[in-house]
Amino acid sequence: MTACMMRHPVHWLRAFSVVLASFCMVGVAAAQSTPASTDEVIALLKQAQEAARTTDYAGVFTYQDNGAMQSSRITHVVDGTGERERLEVLDGKPREFIRHNDTLYCLIPEKQLVLVEEARTDRFPGMFLGDTGHLMGHYDFMRDALPSRVAGRDCTVVHVNPKTPDRYGYKFCVDRETNLLVKAQTVNGLTIVDEIAFTMLQVGEKVSSEHLHSSWNTGNWKQVEIATHNIDASQLGWRIHTPPGFQFATQISRPMKSGEAVKHLVLSDGLAAISVFIEPFEAARTTRSLSKGARKNGAINVFATRIGDYWLTALGAVPVATLQAVAEQTQFIAPAGGQQ
């Protein structure tokens, strides 16, 4: 799971600030958000989700949270075989993610390893995960009267404000020409929790499929397909507490380093997502130090607790109180027949 600056002469900035000041009050008035039909705004966001799948685009985007920033280069092309995409992480350890439709290949060069797994639909510039039919019951939608600009492109600004404090809000910028999402912020009131945005973007015929190919020769690398299988947590005895509006988007089991299986459940209201990991307690504590309670990893909150012979970890870009409720109100009742 993952995430260029130009300096202007000082005298130019000073001159620009004088001009900017004269328009300041006009700009404040123009930036006011206006109510929009919920159906209209959701339709726009769905068009953005579709554009992420059907548009040819290439560019650089940055992800920022808690003072840290990571840049990535992405190329996305639709051809006769479907969607093809390459994402290259530009900061820190080199990583590449090659996607063909729903299959994702994670390239780890220092280990000469390729991990293969199923891709998620909410990766930028996508945003939705699971059922979006209940969004209007949990969010209010506003749209700015005038366009903004991101990466040199005009975009429509949409504010998605939570009706209850158990989830964060969002601010999206949708490109006016292509409907592609060009900027997304997770917000908690006036605080920006995280932000992801294009800094450079090309669309359409300017995008070359040559950039889809990896910079590494992976012919002799080890390829490991992450073995998963679908499960029904309730049939296995788990009564997972789901916040209002959240539904299961994924229920799978995957192997751990210890050889034991970990259950990975994803809850989503269509925008917000919570991952719940359930693993045998004894196996978990042999691989790492376990700490009950809340902690933070960048924009991601985490809450962990022990439930009988199991260790449950809930994490996501949602308030920690929401994760605590999920963890502490989940119950395990051993099913008849001993299946767990």
Summarize the structure in short.
With 340 residues, the protein is an alpha+beta fold. It is built from five helices and 23 strands.
Can you tell me about this structure?
It is a single chain. The relative contact order is 0.13. The chain folds into two domains: about 35-210, outer membrane lipoprotein receptor (LolB), chain A, CATH 2.50.20; about 225-330, MucB/RseB, C-terminal domain (Phosphorylase Kinase, domain 1), CATH 3.30.200. It is α+β, with helices and mostly antiparallel strands and about 350 residues long. The model is unreliable at about 1-30 (pLDDT under 50). The two termini are about 25 Å apart. Helices cover about 15% and strands about 45% of the residues. Strands 1, 2, 3, 4, 5, 6, 7, 8, 9, 10, 11, 12, 13 and 14 form a 14-stranded mixed sheet that branches. Strands 15-17-18-19-22-21-20 form a seven-stranded antiparallel sheet.
